[in-house]
Amino acid sequence: MIRTEDLTKQYGKLFAVKNLKIDLVEGDLFGFIGPNGAGKTTTMKILATLLQPTWGEAYVCDMSIYTKAPEIRRRIGYMPDFFGVYDDMKVIEYLEFFAAAYRISGNKRRKVCEEMLELVDLSYKRDAMATSLSRGMTQRLGLARVLLHDPQVLLLDEPASGLDPRARIEMRELLKRLGERGKTIMVSSHILPELADVCNKVGIIEKGELLVNADVVEVMRQVRDHLVINVEVNGKPEDAAKLLEKHNAVSSIEIKNSVIRVSLVKGKNVDDYSDLPTILIQNGFKIKSFKEDEINLETAFMTLTKGATA
User: Fold this and answer.
1) Does residue 106 carry a pLDDT above 90?
2) What sign for the dihedral angle of Cα 179, 182, 188, 192?
3) Does the domain spanning 2-214 belong to CATH 3.40.50.300?
């Protein structure tokens, strides 16, 4: 449904996107992660045919962005990070206006608008003024708008931006429902742990280059190669650290606030560290706590990127 080949956007000497390769099939929910300025919005604008790349190719629904832009626009729903609503329109009028733009007419138009309001849980606000909605409701209204023409592909740029915790949860559940309907969805977000719950694939972009493009499970496996164990003992942590650093599975050790942070050797049976507490106990240390660093998309992002922008 979405395929890019060496997709590049250059401004002078600056690469906003460089040699991007993405391949998504029907039903994929792709989490697009990266710091501000990494190239996420540029990529989405190119896929939405709103921006021409410098070179490279992109296909959406098996159609080239160069030769089939009008056809692509009929099959996608693009929701930018920030969008406006009309001051003098009610919620239902706002949706009907855009439904008319999509050439949905007559009784079908009203039916589709009502169905989308129900899908995004805004039916009770149908007669409210669009400008009276909260940020979270406005985001849901924007999502209802891009769903009116039943697009095959959704490009959602920071749909959870600025939302409170409850609104983020509601947005996450809505994305799950859309995924169950077979939509191919590309969603960028900084709410990293929540993307892991809804996405089956993830891409991490930095300085315009895609550092990671894999299933969520594979990304977690890559991060697990950098496993860190946090250990607290009764006694001097410096002495315990000296014992542990002799182990051949340990690559480095540091002590922070009496907690021994043990980094294991990358790829060296990182799941098997059961003899580390045994070593401590045999040498007279009592273990207060022994646990892994939490592994989630946020951990992956911090491990695999350096915070640089294009």
Assistant:
1) no
2) positive
3) yes
